[in-house]
Amino acid sequence: MSATRFSRAHNIISQTAVSNNINNYPGADVNTDPRLTESFIWENLQLLHSKCVNPILDAFGPNDIKITSAYRCKALNKIFGGTSKSQHISGHAIDLVSTKHPSSLLWNFCFQNLSSFNQLIWEFPERGDFTPSKEKFSWIHISYIQDNNPKTTSISSKREDIHEMYQSEKTCKIGDYTHSIVYADNSIF
To answer: Which of 19, 121, 123, 137 is surrounded by the fewest CB atoms within 10 Å?
Structure first.
């Protein structure tokens, strides 16, 4: 992955995979889905980093951004509660936190400054921002798919009052997601 400042290991290492004896190396699912080859997944991760992650690192600095999840094989994705169509399975998606700034600031930067992305989701802001001592926290999910980047924006939350704050004629709530948001408002917490 030459076009990134994170190593390959940053994109695949998972303590959950290790503790569950799961092979989370790209290509692990090629027997159940022939398109999920090692090279396919690494190429997707390289594009994701080049188009989305590196511009974030340029703005926030390499010591401020942490990957919480990138590639996930199907077994690991299932443990995390991901859907069978999760973009993490193909290496198209990554979850990031800022170690120094609110997740809302990171989301707003991406929305305002990235020229293309497939999805941008502000995940569970009610959990509060990342700190090393917290087990659960908010993050952003961002994905990039070559020739398929409609710039879908969303907030994910279990709290109905948060969805109500984002309700407008331009947004649409489906399950735990409100889509087509244009601002991550940290002041509501």
So the answer is: 19
Mean of pLDDT values over 26-44: 98
The pTM of the full predicted model, rounded to 2 decimals, is 0.95
Give the per-residue pLDDT at 3.
46
The proportion of the chain whose per-residue pLDDT surpasses 70, expressed as a percent, equals 98
4 falls in which pLDDT band (50, 70, 90)?
Answer: low
Radius of gyration in angstroms for the set of CA atoms belonging to the chain, rounded to a whole number:
16
Q: Which two tokens stand for residue 147?
A: 């020739």
- The tokens describing 38, both together, are 């090692």
Residue 1, pLDDT above cutoff 70: no
Looking from the CA of 21 toward its CB, the CA atoms found within 13 Å total: 0
| Closest-CA residue to 110 (of 131, 140, 147, 90) | 140
Q: Tokens at residue 5, please?
A: 């400042």
